[in-house]
Write a structure and sequence with these properties.
mainly alpha; 6 helices; elongated
């Protein structure tokens, strides 16, 4: 059960971190605009994730595809945001991390369906490393709500 709890926490964190932006912008947003959009989305994501209960490997297999679809949709919106020049590198890394986590959520669901805990464990380690990197970026860039859910 301990492994299932760990898998669940990674799946939820993956969803939360993958959804960091909304809307699209053609010109660079200001730091305040980018931060406000990301913080608002993180609060919304936290509320959505609170409706999901994952207690077992079967729950992961059932819920991960839904979360992965949600993440992919949000990732599309996230990639449309144009950060200010001073945050461009961080934002690029953050979006790449979100993409990795969205892909990992999908894989995690497949591994849970296949009862492939060995591969799931390696995926969790990869996701945790990505999450830590994204959390550091969120903290540095003032995306407080995103940092808190990491």
């Amino acid at each position: 059960m301990r492994r299932s709890t760990r898998l669940a926490s990674v799946a939820l964190a993956t969803s939360t971190l993958a959804i960091m932006g909304c809307g699209s912008s053609e010109k660079p947003l200001t730091r305040a605009e980018l931060t406000a959009k990301a913080n608002a989305i993180c609060k919304t994501v936290t509320a959505k994730l609170a409706t999901k209960t994952i207690k077992s490997q079967q729950d992961i297999a059932r819920i991960a595809p839904e979360l992965a679809g949600f993440e992919q949709t949000a990732l599309g919106e996230l990639s449309k945001l144009v950060p200010p020049a001073g945050l461009a590198n961080d934002w690029k890394q953050f979006v790449a991390g979100a993409e990795t986590l969205a892909e990992n959520t999908d894989k995690l669901g497949e591994y849970a369906k296949q009862n492939n805990l060995k591969s799931a464990g390696a995926l969790i380690v990869s996701s945790e490393k990505t999450q830590k990197q994204m959390q550091a970026l969120a903290k540095r860039d003032g995306i407080v709500a995103c940092e808190q859910v990491a």
